Amino acid sequence: ADCDSCDSSDVIHPLGVLAAILRNAQIRVEAATFWGDGQTLPPLVTTRRPANDPSTDGLIGRPDTIPLFGGKEMLSDSTQGVRGELGLFFDPCRTKGVLLRFFDVSTQTESYNNSGTAEPVVMRPFFSTANNAQASIAINYPGSTSGSVNASLSSELYGGNLLFRRRLARDCGGEIEFLTGYQMVHLSEDLSLVSSTTALSNSPAPLGTVSQLSDRFETENRFYGASFGLQGKIREGYWSLQGMVQLGVGNLERLVDIAGSSTITVPGTPPTTSSTTNGLLARNTNDGHYEFNTFVVSPEAAVTLGYRISRRLEATLTYTYLGLPKVARAGDQLDPDLASNLNNPLTGTPTPRFNLVESNLDLHSLSYGLQWQY
Predict the structure, then answer these.
(1) What is the mean pLDDT of the chain?
(2) Structurally, how many domains does the chain consist of?
(3) Does residue 2 lie within any of the structural domains?
(4) What contacts 9, CB < 8 A, 6 or more positions away?
(5) Please, are residues 167 and 176 in contact by the beta-carbon 8 Å criterion?
(6) What's the CATH number where 254 sits?
(7) DSSP states of 127-174 as a string?
(8) Phi–psi pair at 22, nearest 5 degrees
(9) Rounded (5°) CA angle 166-373-5
(10) What is the DSSP code (8-state) at residue 331?
């Protein structure tokens, strides 16, 4: 028989249907290293060493201000994850079939925690539109306040395809397939800043007053669309080289949730507690739930180098690129000036503000694993 022939006569097997399915299946599982675009946050928690003046220490723009959280690109380091493929052909000649592809990136997190003693000076800076000047809230300051802050930025990303595959051409050296089907990508992020402060003797607040402050910015990006592409493979001896390109076209839904809160407890008999839904950077002027939809085109490309270990087992090394435009990143949804108007009741400029900020996500991965083909 020539290289285009196939033999379907041996599909009959004592295990019947299961054997017929297995003989037309392929499975690939790969450990992957992912890297891509981080996001640059403004300084959200700062310090000055040593303490000098609570009215100026930790302000944005001062040369002696040291960022403790933010003030740099974050979530830009590589991280681990997994990629996989499950394929099933409808006929022994492998001319038509389905292919399930998936990837999962391990959750990335960057955080800062101050217990109240690790840094003598811990400030939360912002731009006061009430006073038209840089300002800060002292979380921990010698003689004035004792407190802690927990700041974190996290990101989760996963996606996949369910594709119909049809062979377009084949010769002794390789083959090419047309791919079409469904694609989905989910990206969710969470930026959280939570602090608790107790007033000391030099504080303008009554001694022992406890102030709790919280800001949270959450984003979720959901892409669902149709995908179209080509996949080709060539083989020479034990080695093989496979390439895939595809475009996903569809709707990208962006969800943004902004919430803030503050609770102040003044000691007394009994103590007095007051609470609001205003944080520092998440206040009634920008909080809420927002939904946006847009049409996007998501490109993807992959190259796989394979080495046949046995008749059915192959070692693989794969580079993959995935692009997703117009995503909403959590850190980008902050007021661009870190502006906040703390006047209560509100007078003057209503800040912070919210306007959706979009960016492009470029995800790269290098993965290695095994492919089994019955």
Answers:
(1) 93
(2) 1
(3) no
(4) none
(5) yes
(6) 2.40.128.90
(7) EETTTTEEEEEEEEBTTTEEEEEEEEEEEEEEEEEEEEEEEEEEETTE
(8) -65, -40
(9) 55
(10) G
Instruction: Please name the residues in contact with 201: beta carbons below 8 A apart, sequence gap of 6 or more.
Output: 143, 207
Q: What is the pTM of this model?
A: 0.91
Q: Which residue has the higher pLDDT, 10 or 251?
A: 251
Beta bridge partners of 324: 361
Token representation of residue 118: 């690790």
Residue-number span of the structural domain to which 210 is assigned: 22-373
- Residue environment code for 68-79, b if the CB has 16+ CB neighbours within 10 A, otherwise e: bbbbeebbeeeb
> For residue 78, is it within any domain?
yes
Residue type, 6: C
Q: Nearest-CA neighbor of 24 among 13, 43, 11?
A: 11
> Which has the closest alpha carbon to 358: 312, 336, 325?
325
Residue 3 falls within a domain, yes or no?
A: no
- Answer whether 151's CB lies under 8 Å from 280's CB: no
- CB 234 within 8 Å of CB 243: no
**213-262 tens-digit pLDDT:** 999 999 999 999 999 999 999 999 999 999 999 999 999 999 999 999 99
CA of 296: how far to CAs of 88, 155, 244, 338, 348, in Å?
Answer: 30, 21, 20, 30, 39
Burial 310-334 (b: 16+ CB within 10 A, else e): eeeebebebebebbbbbbbbbbbbb
The answer to whether position 40 is within a domain reads yes
**What does the block give as tokens for 73?**
């690109």
Number of neighbouring beta carbons within 10 Å of residue 130: 16
Helix, coil or strand: residue 18: helix
Contact 73, 110 (CB under 8 A): no
Q: Which residues does residue 191 pair with via DSSP β-bridges, in sequence order?
A: 153, 217
The contacts of residue 191 (CB under 8 Å, 6+ apart) are: 41, 152, 153, 215, 216, 217, 218, 330, 331, 334
Confidence of residue 302 (pLDDT cuts 50, 70, 90): very high
